[in-house]
Amino acid sequence: MASQGKVYINGRLIGFHKDPRQLTRDLIQQRRKGKIEYQVNIAFHEDTQEVYINTDAGRVQRPVLVVENGKLKLKEEQLKQLNEGKINWDNLVKDGVIEYLDAEEEENALIATEEEEITNKHTHMEIDPVGILSVVSSLIPHLEHNMAGKALHGAKMFKQALGISGINYNLRTDTEGHLLHYPQKAIVKTKTSDLMNFEKRPQVQNFVVAIMPYYGFNTLDAVMLNKGAIDRGLARSAYFRTYETAETRYPGGQIDKFEIPKEETVGFLGEEFYKKLGEDGLVELDEYVSEKDVIAGKTSPPRFLEEVSEFGVVQEKRRESSITVRKGKPGFVDKVFICEDSEGNKLVKIKIRSLMIPEVGDKFSSKHGQKGVVGGIVPEEDMPFNEQGIKPDLILNPHSIPSRMTIGHLLEMLGGKAGSLKGQEMDGTPFSAITQKEMGKMLEETGFRADGKEDFFDGLSGKKLEGQIFTGVVAYRRLFHMVAHKMQSRSRGPVQILTRQPTEGKEKEGGLRFGEMEGETLVGHGAAMLLHEKLIENSDKLVELVCEKCGLIAINDQIRNRRYCPVCNSSAVYPVEMSYGFKLLLDELKTLGIMPKLLIKDKV
Question: Is 135 inside any structural domain?
Fold first, then answer.
C-alpha cells in the first residue's frame, strides 16, 4: 500500500492507485475526448506521488492550446474553418484542442510561447503570449522589458487614475467621484485595450517628457510640470462630493425640518453660515460654498421635553442639525436632488463640484510604475526647450530609471514620439510590440535621431545643455491622491474625553501622531526638551498634586481651599507635571486594587 499513490478529489482522500502517473494521463485524455467535464482539473504531484482532482468553484482557469508528442493539436484546417466561421471556440474545447488549466495543473505543464520553440517536453502552447498576463497588466505597453515588481505597481495604479468613469456621471450620486477634463487616447496601446474598449473610458493624457534633472526640484521621484501646459488644461479634473440628509421621523410624531434655523435654535451657528441657503433651507444651484458653510439647513426636535414655563406654556426649542461642507473640500453646488427614502421621508442629496488644478504635491504616474509627486511647477518661459522650441510638459529625474529597470517606459517614450510625428497609433502589446529598430527608423524618417535624444537649451540662462536629453511622449495618469485632500495641521484643537490626547484624523481636526518610533529618534539624538515638548506639552500635559508621604495623587478641594492626601490626610502635597495618560493609568491600577506610589523629590 505504501508505494501506491493517493488520489484526492477537492482535497478529500478518496482512494489509492498503483500507477498515479498513468491515471493522470488517462483522466486528461478522457477530458480531452469530452467524457469528463472540461472544467475539471487533474494535477499529479511528482514528489508525493499524489493525484489531485479539482472540481470546486472559485478556481481561476485560463485556456491554452494542447501539444501532444511535440506537435500542436490545432491544425491548419481548423484555423481555416475558424476564420470562415464554420467552427467556433466551443468546438475547439470539445475537440480537446484547447483546454483550461488552473493554478495547480499549470504546475505540471511546460507551456511554449511560440510554435517554433515546441519540443517533445512541451505540453501546451499559449494562444497568444499576452495570455500569460492579467487583463490589467496586459494594458501596460512593452511590459516584458520591465521588472515584475514595477509592472505590478503600474497595474495597481490603473485603479487610482482619474478619467471618465461613465457618461452618466452627471446624474450619479456616488459619495466621491472624479472626472478628468481632457482625457486622451494613448498613442502607444496594446491589443487588450482594443478588446476592452479601453479608449471609450480614457484615463490618460499624452505628456511630452524629458528625462533630466531640473535645479534639484525633481530630486528622487519628484516630477516638474510646465505651468503653461497646466494653464492650457493639462491634467485638470473635477472632484465631486455628495452630501445626503433626510427629514427623520422620531417616536411621538416629531420630525426634522429643512429650514433656515432661527436664532433661538439650540446650537445656532451664526447668520453668516446660512447666507447661501434658499427659502426652503437648501443651498442654491451653482453657489460657491467653502468649508463650514451650511448647504442644508435642518432643525431637529429637542431630545427631551422642555419644562413648563411660568405662564404654563411649553416653549419648544429645536436643535440645529444642518449639513456643512467638509474640511478642505470647497466648491460649487453642482446638483441638488430632492426625493423620498424607503420610509417616505423627504431625502436631499447635494453634489458639490470642486475644480482640481495640478499643484505641488499631487501624484502622477506612467503605466510602468514610475510614480512621483509634483516637486515644482515651472513658468513656461523657464522650461528647457529643444531646437524646435518644444518644451516638455513633464521633467522626470534620470535616477528613477536605472534601479527600477523600467525599460518599457523608455520604449513607450520612443514609440509615443514616433507615433505623434507619424500621426499613427503604435502597437505596444507585450511580446509582440513594434521593435526599437522600427521606431528608430520612423524617427529618422521625420528628421529626428533614432535614439530619441535631442539637444536642449536651459530656459533660464539660454545656454545649450551639455550632452543630449532623452525625450519622448508617454501616456501619464493623474492619480486621485491630491495634496489638497491630505493637507492637515493644527496647533490646538479638540481632545478625546477619556485620554485628553488630541483627536485622530483630518475630519476631527486631529493632531499628527508623534508615535513610538518618532519618539525613539529624539531619544537617539538626545533631544530631551523636544521629546518633552512633543509628548507632553503638545499632547496632554497635566499638573497634579502628589502626596510626599504615600505617593498618591492628592485632592485639591477648592471650595474649602484645602489640599490634602486622601489616604494619610497629610497636607505635604506638591505639584507634579505629568501626562494625563499616565494619570489615567494610575487611576486604572487603583480600580484593580493596586496602589501605585510616586516617589517625588526636589527638582535639581
Answer: no
| Domain coverage including residue 533 | 488-537
Q: Please check whether residues 225 and 261 belong to one and the same domain.
A: no
188 is a domain residue: yes
Q: Which three cell numbers stand for residue 58?
A: 472559485
Which cell numbers in the block locate residue 133? 498576463
Q: Which sequence positions are flagged as catalytic?
A: 349, 481
CA 358 – CA 226 distance, rounded (Å): 10
The side-by-side arrangement of strands in the sheet containing 41-45 is 12-17, 5-9, 50-54, 41-45
Task: Calculate Rg over the CA atoms of the chain.
Answer: 35
Residue 578 CB neighbour total at 10 angstroms: 18
Model confidence over 144-199: pLDDT tens digits?
Answer: 999 999 999 999 999 999 999 889 999 999 999 999 999 999 999 999 999 999 98
Q: What is the pLDDT of residues 108-129, one digit of tens each?
A: 899 999 888 899 999 999 999 9
Number of domains in the chain: 5
| Distances, alpha carbon 451 to alpha carbons 135, 190, 439, 468, 557, in Å | 31, 22, 9, 10, 84
- Number of CB atoms found within 10 A of residue 82's CB: 15
Q: Is residue 139 part of a domain?
A: no
Return the CATH number at 398: 2.40.270.10
User: Could you write out the DSSP letters of every residue in 365-382?
Assistant: EETTS-EEEEEEEE-GGG
**What band does 3 get if pLDDT is binned at 50, 70 and 90?**
low
Helices marked H in 315-448: 407-422, 436-445
Whether 351 maps to a domain, the answer reads yes
Contact yes or no for 371/103 (Cβ under 8 A): no
DSSP state of 79: H
Q: Is 438 helix (H, G, I), strand (E, B) or coil?
A: helix
CA distance 417 to 443: 8
Q: How far apart are CA 493 and CA 292, in angstroms?
A: 16
CATH number at residue 577: 3.90.1800.10
Q: Are residues 500 and 575 in the same domain?
A: no
Q: Is residue 89 within a helix (H) or strand (E), and if so which, with residue range?
A: helix 89-94
Residue 453: pLDDT band by 50, 70, 90 thresholds?
A: very high
